[in-house]
Amino acid sequence: MASVKNNYQFEDLLDKHQLKKTAPRLRVLSMMYSKNTATSQPDLESVMNDIDRVTLYRILNVFEEKGIIHKVFDLNGTANYAVCHSDCGANHHHDEHLHFNCTGCKNVYCLNELTLPAITLPAGFRAEDFTLYASGLCPRCDKKNPARA
Fold first, then answer.
1. 102 is in an annotated binding site
2. Which of 8, 13, 48, 121 has a CA positioned 20 to 30 A from the CA of residue 128?
3. Which three-class secondary structure string do you get for the chain?
């Protein structure tokens, strides 16, 4: 993920999306930009215990609607959220990249640098969303794996 932005950049991001600059929104942005993995609402709740669950849910919801973050599911079906790094916009995400689920540490990584092939659907099908998942071991967990060849 991108390097951590400062509060002025977060304020500009909120302005760009016509969102009020509140302390909880700025904190959520700071936390999400500081991670190199997707994160779940329960994980955010555990480190942001001064932001109540409903407020955090609403922040994540509006950030997703505005194209600031996108939702990706882990191997257990839990929704995780990751920062959008492309031209995502209101109600339209361009997160057509590989989502890697590590079976060791259970983290979800957005592999934005991979170029995915174009997918042509059969006649009559129209895709409204596209998600590609892979699972295995991330580099950190692979190094810990003694069975590694």
1. yes
2. 13
3. CCCCCCHHHHHHHHHHCCCCCCHHHHHHHHHHHHCCCCEEHHHHHHHCCCCCHHHHHHHHHHHHHHCCEEEEECCCCCEEEEECCCCCECCECCCCCEEEEECCCCCEEEECCCCCCCCCCCCCCCCCCCCEEEEECCHHHHHHCCCCC
